[in-house]
Amino acid sequence: MAKRLAAADKEVLVEVVRFTQKNGLKGSDGGWKDFLAQNDRKFGASVSDPRKRSRDVLLAFLQTFSKDYQKYFGKLVKRHNERSAVQQHMTEFPDEVSPEQKLVQLTAEHPEYRKNYCFPSYQEGWKVLRIGEVSSLMSSRAMLAIDCEMVLCKDGTEAVVRVCVVDNNLEVKLDILVNPYKAIADYRTHITGVSKDDLEGATSSLVDVQKSLKRILSKGNILIGHSLHRDLCGKVWYNLFLKIDYSQVIDTAYIFKYANLPTTASASLNSLCKAVLGYSVREEGEPHNCLKDAETAMNLVLAKLKHGFSDPIDIAASSVTESDVLKLLVHRIPVYLPCQELHKIFSGNPDIDDKIDSRIRGEFYSTYISFNDLDEVERAFEELDGQKTKDSGGRLQKQVLLKRDNGDVVSFFVRKMVHGSGSNQFDVPKKRPEPSDDLVPKKEHANGIQQKKKRSTKKHASKENMSVAP
């Protein structure tokens, strides 16, 4: 593996170094910036972009890691080489490429693919599945669609409790209840459709599921799912998701173009199903059905293969229910802030959803603010202090600072539920805001104010334009 790393091209080494940055990995000289500060007297860490560093510097940094890490880095190099070989083969022999493999490639070319499908599979419990010879992948392969349901455990993690897999004939290949073997805080039955009674007597573990998936994905078979990376890995490594690293995937969120969403955004399974297949996966308020969602993902791929759908799809207007139009979403709220204190930032007396247990993510939670009509929603949002930005789905939001009675200042986001709705009347920065509430929270001081590194004078100046709600 060390030889494979040493022989890698610079662009591959750049990707591996970026992987270490994303996952906070450190060698004997610390992380990437630590290494530069110690070993480059001229520039130090001031030029930290891996692309601007020589191949020798990149390799020297990666060689500061243990043999186990270098072994994993070798696997990353192999994965990159396989991806390049697939691209080259498709260019040289386009007539040999199956339609299914073209969708695998279309998924891999999506702007969000490398970020979301770069898994920490060097960690314990992960399974890296082989794809076989590149030339053999070009012919038609079996396709299998998957969907999972997760529950919230008492230690704050999430765990898989049901896994369903169907083939391209919609025949069920796997429908299994999974015992997380840890205490469950919230079954989220209204979302997952799984109750405490359902899991009583369940003996299958995550390892059992991984073995089953390894068997049915042999010989380069294609795995399909909607935002599939969330089932394979989730947002944080310590969650008990499937922990499967596999590159032969079709993500139905990536293979369609959207007329009025950012290129990095994707539609929900339900709204995409309505736009492409003409029906809803579920009615409003109905819990998920793991098997039905897997079937829907497969039907979307089959529709794409049959009809192409090369033109952008306009689905945003139908992606929000009538009741949700009258709401604002408040997210990344620190758990120590009672939701009733949110009344301070809204005029009138809107309803605040205090059923937040299923929406707690570590140290943060989210809730909904409901209004009587659209005018109230627009007025409430416009009256909030804070700069307008767009979230990753293209919806307007503002970062709000709330000063509590004890003097603490709390930061969170207020987001619209609908796209558009006056968004064309002003210029909205394209800068991506803070992560949503389902990401790993950053450490905070005891008084609840998030720790921040020192920033440049220019960045401080832009912050001073944001006022604090009294």
Q: Describe it for me?
A:
It is built from 16 helices and 16 strands. The protein is α+β, with helices and mostly antiparallel strands and 470 residues long. Strands 9, 10, 11, 12, 13, 14, 15 and 16 form an eight-stranded mixed β-sheet that branches. Strands 2, 3, 4, 5, 6 and 8 form a six-stranded mixed β-sheet that branches. A two-stranded parallel sheet has the order 1-7. Strand 2 and strand 3 form a beta hairpin. It starts with a helix and ends with a strand. Keywords: Exonuclease, Hydrolase, Nuclease, Nucleus. 3'-5' exonuclease degrading single-stranded small RNAs. It is found in: Nucleus.
Query: How many H/I helical runs?
Result: 16
Question: What gross morphology would you assign?
Answer: globular
Largest beta-sheet characterization: 8 strands, mixed
Q: Give me the Rg, rounded.
A: 24 Å
Query: What class do helices, strands and sheet pairing give?
Result: alpha+beta
Total number of beta strands = 16
Low-confidence stretches: 421-467
Helix content: 25-40%
Subunit arrangement of the protein: single chain
The percentage of residues in β strands lies in 15-25%
Q: N- to C-terminal separation?
A: 58 Å
Task: Indicate the mean pLDDT.
Answer: 81
